[in-house]
């Protein structure tokens, strides 16, 4: 590691610790030439998750977009903001554990539906009606029968 002040390549790590969120390693360094100290961080490089849309387009996974969709489904229910955030975090974690960084939108939808089904039946039906593109009352009926 080169010194950020004098570009000397002879630096020494004097302290190493895990960052507060656990997502990085923080290192305090000392330059043997200019005697200055500075901090560096070592982070794991995350590959972006690409969502394959129904029409074949690809776009980056957007956690905020997912959160808005879940929130919309949970409006006027007893689902709390913390529960919504947990669903979003759990889905994102499951996506990161997939073998591929390219994931079909239906996989994401199924994960959300699975979590909402456990959490709140009304939120689940609302989400499913948009995600599964219910066209008429019979589609709702079929889904409701599965819940009962």
TrEMBL record:
One of its GO terms (biological process) is negative regulation of DNA-templated transcription. A zinc finger (unnamed) spans 3-34. It comes from the Bacteria. Coiled coil: none annotated. Keywords: ATP-binding, DNA-binding, Metal-binding, Nucleotide-binding, Repressor, Transcription, Transcription regulation, Zinc, Zinc-finger. Binds 1 zinc ion. Its cofactor is Zn(2+). InterPro entries: ATP-cone_dom (IPR005144), NrdR-like_N (IPR055173), RNR_NrdR-like (IPR003796). Residues 49-139 form the ATP-cone domain. One of its GO terms (molecular function) is ATP binding. Pfam families: ATP-cone, Zn_ribbon_NrdR. Negatively regulates transcription of bacterial ribonucleotide reductase nrd genes and operons by binding to NrdR-boxes. HAMAP family: NrdR. Belongs to the NrdR family. This is Transcriptional repressor NrdR.
């Amino acid at each position: 590691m080169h010194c950020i002040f004098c570009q000397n390549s002879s630096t020494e790590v004097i302290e190493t610790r895990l960052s507060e969120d656990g997502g990085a390693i923080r290192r305090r360094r000392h330059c043997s030439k200019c005697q200055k100290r500075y901090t560096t961080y070592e982070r794991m490089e995350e590959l972006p998750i690409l969502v394959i849309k129904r029409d074949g387009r690809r776009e980056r996974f957007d956690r905020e977009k997912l959160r808005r969709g879940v929130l919309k489904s949970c409006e006027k229910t007893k689902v709390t903001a913390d529960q919504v955030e947990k669903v979003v975090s759990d889905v994102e974690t499951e996506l990161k554990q997939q073998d591929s960084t390219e994931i079909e939108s239906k996989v994401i939808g199924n994960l959300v539906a699975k979590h909402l089904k456990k959490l709140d039946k009304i939120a689940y039906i609302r989400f499913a009606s948009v995600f599964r593109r219910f066209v008429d009352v019979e589609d709702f009926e079929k889904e409701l029968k599965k819940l009962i």
